[in-house]
Amino acid sequence: MFPAKGGYYARCEGFEIAGLDQMNRSEALAAVEAAMTRPTVEQCEELVASLHAVTARRGDDAEGQMLAMALYAGCLAQYPADIAKAVCMAFALRKAKPNWFPTLSEINEACETATAQRSVLLHSLKAAPIERAAA
């Protein structure tokens, strides 16, 4: 994939999974599903509020801020909790001066990119054939 800003990034298209029996497939699925656990709305609102506190932004009335908070929190709530937090931290710590509050599109794209490999792994595990033990 080639981002609009130049450069490139790798994107995982799939995993080849072999040698799974039902027990280790179940364990692997449980681990990946646990890694896909989403944050609560309250956790997402905390992340957005923290990001809001350390970035530059345009002035907005209270109603506009509440709407933005709900939209950003809703976006973050679609992704694993650790990824939502890491994406917000990355935007908070960018070296750009001034460090502007990211757009919803930037947040969504960063979360999508960070989640892609886990999503593909989860799909691959669910689709992987189960080997039968030799009798």
Radius of gyration: 19 Å
Number of helices: 5
Question: Which class do the helix and strand fractions yield?
Answer: mainly alpha
Order of helices and strands: HHHHH
Fraction of residues in helices?
A: 55-70%
* Low-pLDDT segments, ≥5 res: none
Can you walk through the features of this model?
This protein has 135 residues and is an all-alpha fold. The protein has a domain at 39-126. The chain contains five helices and no strands. The longest helix is centred in the C-terminal third of the chain and has 24 residues, at 104-127. The chain starts with 21 loop residues before the first helix and ends in an 8-residue tail after the last helix.
Secondary-structure blueprint:
Elements: H1 22-35, H2 41-54, H3 62-76, H4 81-92, H5 104-127
Briefly say what this structure is.
The protein is an all-alpha fold. 59% of the residues lie in helices and 0% in strands.
Please name the defining characteristics of this protein:
single chain, 135 residues, mainly alpha
